[in-house]
Write a sequence for this structure.
């Protein structure tokens, strides 16, 4: 059976969950996918670096105690991401670190280093795809490898791969999405009578919202995802800063109640549309949706994207937009896509 | 550019629409898909048979006047489907005839003849997949060709291909679907205050419901689709007659109003679930769904399937469940899948 050597960059929640799945579900995954995965290296800011061409002992990695580093299992306490990514004996680099939403770094450099050294790369970070998708895809094509990022939008819910696969040739003309679970949860709780401040506090209690909820309720998280979708699905070449953005901070309890009284719902909508001449228009803004709109019933922290198509009219996919396991699955689906490409091209 | 020769079996609404799309959108489709399609033969009960290895003149076919047959454009008035399917110089047979819901014929034989003669086949008929999916897939594998039937469930909305592609390895444990637009439309109109008889009459006026609406409201249409989904997605080996079935005829205006008063909705649900030991349980029956259920808001003639998965929880896709253009697109997506297989396997 074909094996891929995998290098993990970052061992936070997402990559740790992926490592756990690979460790405990190896047999079932091999049966379902037709290949095996061997982790040959891990680097992490807190844990250091460990490399073993024969396979890192993942049982030992997952059993590390609080405060222990990879030095305890034959690695080192330091990490140099560029050297690690360029030299680790891996076919696939799995990138799941922090992204700066202003410039996509350091994830963007991680992806570039992986591709430059002839490795396929998958990432859950929005940054690389939102700031440099075209450059990175061209680089991947030049090197004969893949750049995959399903988890950048709606975690493991396969929005990007549905559009590029089963909806190929459907005549895609646009999309509208509920792309931030926190703001959708907050709007839902405002429908239940809470003020926005109360709803934000509740979302923080539930772990949906960060201590600083600005990226969620201000729209900048959605803006990155709209950029990824517009570039990927509509063939645009946009930079995130070019997307007009308005968050939900201006939505008052009165507006929510007034909409609700006629069956309508306020939603934070990220959307893009392509004109006949190919021009792509994008926006992030709250919209009041009538009850029969496909996105009106998307409740709680669920995310959804409605595709506008020439042959099928509206097609909508909804599912989780976040979560440890859900995002780890996005990486697994990326690896499956890399395998499919690899089989097809030699 | 790679070309596939295509034989059309049946030239009713669906195949005629496909032919129109292939005729008028040829350049755009070639650009998007990387291949061309040439219709080398057509057979139809009313129109007769026409075969031309260099390509049937589709402009002439589409311009045939009422009452004219293929005899007017160099063909014959008669048709012998078995001989046509076995001998037509085609790589792909596109089957879009009538199916008998009791045994899947004659579509089932059409598919078998195509596969036996080494041709890939795609069909919008539920019959072949509902009554003989396992046999026909094995036959296709043996002959090194493909049997595709995305249009059998939800027309062009890519339910089957989403499950087998982007949701591969997601740990699929079950599905629930609104799979009949007519009954969903009727239930929606009953929510607006109509009796079931009035709603049926209105659906007939709109062209949603047949003169005899039994298959729609009695559940047998959904039963065929549940069989296809259970066999395809959950690995079952069910025969349509094994699926317990209850339609919507027992749903009264009082039940609808009572549900609505607490925000709930009656829906005709086709579902399947797989136990840990692999046992698959299926059913077709009306269910009352709370407002926050992903299928509760699916309105009008729209269809939807919610997948239950181990890694992502619930993922739902909604879109058209019928329509000329929508179903023709299903065939086009099948042909794209056949091309992908063909590229991968030499």
């Amino acid at each position: 059976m074909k094996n891929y050597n995998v290098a993990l960059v970052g061992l936070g929640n997402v990559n740790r969950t992926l490592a756990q799945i690979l460790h405990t579900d190896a047999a079932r995954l091999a049966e379902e996918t037709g290949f095996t995965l061997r982790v040959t290296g891990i680097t992490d800011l807190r844990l250091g670096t460990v490399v073993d061409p024969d396979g890192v002992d993942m049982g030992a990695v997952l059993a590390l105690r609080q405060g222990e580093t990879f030095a305890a299992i034959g690695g080192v306490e330091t990490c140099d991401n560029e050297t690690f990514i360029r030299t680790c004996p891996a076919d696939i680099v799995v990138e799941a670190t922090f992204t700066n939403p202003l410039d996509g770094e350091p994830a963007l450099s991680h992806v570039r280093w992986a591709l430059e050294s002839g490795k396929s790369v998958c990432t859950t970070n929005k940054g690389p795809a939102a700031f440099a998708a075209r450059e990175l895809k061209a680089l991947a094509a030049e090197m004969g490898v893949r750049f995959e990022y399903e988890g950048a939008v709606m975690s493991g819910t396969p929005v990007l791969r549905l559009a590029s696969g089963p909806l190929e040739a459907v005549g895609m003309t646009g999309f509208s999405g509920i792309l931030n679970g926190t703001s959708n949860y907050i709007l839902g709780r405002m429908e239940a009578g809470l003020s926005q401040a109360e709803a934000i506090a509740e979302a923080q209690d539930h772990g949906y919202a960060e201590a600083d909820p600005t990226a969620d309720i201000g729209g900048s998280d959605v803006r990155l995802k709209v950029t990824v979708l517009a570039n990927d699905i509509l063939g645009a070449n946009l930079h995130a800063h070019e997307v007009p953005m308005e968050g939900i901070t201006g939505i008052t309890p009165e507006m929510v109640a007034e909409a609700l009284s006629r069956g309508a719902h306020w939603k934070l909508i990220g959307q893009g549309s392509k004109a006949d001449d190919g021009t792509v228009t994008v926006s992030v803004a709250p919209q009041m949706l009538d009850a029969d709109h496909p996105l009106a019933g998307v409740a709680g922290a669920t995310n959804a994207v409605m595709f506008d198509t020439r042959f099928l009219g509206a097609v909508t996919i909804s599912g989780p937009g976040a979560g440890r396991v859900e995002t780890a699955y996005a990486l697994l689906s990326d690896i499956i896509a890399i395998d499919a490409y690899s089989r097809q091209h030699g």
In short: Chain A touches chain B at residues 29, 32-33, 150, 155-158, 161-162, 165-170, 291-292, 294, 296-297, 299-300, 302, 311-320, 325-326, 328-329, 332-333, 336, 343-344 (CB under 8 Å). Chain A has 13 helices and eleven strands.
